[in-house]
Design a protein that fits this description.
The complex is a heterodimer of chains A (about 120) and B (about 110). Chain A is mainly beta and about 120 residues long. Chain A has strands at about 5, 10, 20-25, 35-40, 45-55, 60, 70-75, 80-85, 95-105, 105-110, 115-120. Chain B has strands at about 5, 10, 15-25, 35, 45, 60-65, 70-75, 85-90, 100, 105-109. In chain B, strands 2, 4, 5, 8, 9 and 10 form a 6-stranded mixed β-sheet that branches. Classes of the chains: A mainly beta (about 120), B mainly beta (about 110).
């Protein structure tokens, strides 16, 4: 069974860098065909796709966040990470990691972590 | 990037049928996927492709799409179906972008 688990600081100061890690079990981050993905959800709001890294190393980011986001994969630890720089209160959200794959004509977010609340405050 | 628009809220009587719609221009290339999210929980995939359900999803959930509109239908809604539902699709511009719908709150009366 594939499982993902987010970890990282729950409180980040404004202007600093938010860093989260997603540990993957039951699957390999070096396997082909998967997009290792970050999504966030502002309190009481909808889902926002942040970006992903493909197993090949290619990265794609939401244009609205592209200048501040870095997603990387550490295959030796079977985990992937999110860094979001120059954070403000508007970056306070629950951050989810997920595995995305293509199936039957759709791109599906088939496995999700439980989510990590990150609050930006001084 | 494109947008996916959903009605903010719908209600359905216990045992009746409800349809949730998602409007956008993404569906020419990729089928949408649908997610159920209950309070305090991560979203769960319920429908993808032309009309496929992951293992463990009840067959009262079904999906369809035509033109610029995708639909998720719950036939015989149960109390445990009360949740937020989001559609998602890859942007068809070729820019490797993913878009979530605005979300629909389903209340089972």
């Amino acid at each position: 069974q594939v499982q993902l688990q987010e970890s990282g600081p729950g409180l980040v100061k404004p202007s600093q860098t938010l860093s989260l890690t997603c540990t993957v079990s039951g699957a390999s981050t070096s396997s082909g065909g998967y997009y290792w993905t970050w999504i966030r959800q502002h309190p009481g709001k909808g889902l926002e796709w942040i970006g992903y890294m493909y197993y090949s190393g290619s990265t794609y980011y939401n244009p609205s966040l592209k200048s501040r986001v870095t997603i990387s994969v550490d295959t030796s630890k079977n985990e992937f990470s999110l860094k979001l720089s120059s954070v403000t209160a508007a970056d306070t959200a629950v951050y989810y990691c997920a595995r995305v794959t293509r199936s039957s004509g759709s791109y599906i977010f088939e496995y999700w972590g439980q989510g990590a609340l990150v609050t930006v405050s001084s | 990037s494109s947008e996916l628009t959903q009605d903010p809220a719908v209600s359905v009587a216990l045992g009746q049928t409800v349809r949730i719609t998602c409007q956008g221009d993404n569906f020419r290339t990729y089928y949408p996927s649908w997610y159920q999210q209950k309070p305090g929980q991560a979203p769960v995939l319920v429908i993808f492709g032309q009309n496929y359900r992951p293992s463990g999803i009840p067959d009262r959930f079904s999906g369809s799409s035509s033109g610029n509109t995708a639909s998720l239908t719950i036939t015989g809604a149960q109390a445990e179906d009360e949740a937020d539902y989001y559609c998602n699709s890859r942007d068809n511009s070729g820019d490797h972008l993913y878009v979530f719908g605005t979300g629909t709150k389903v209340t089972v009366l």
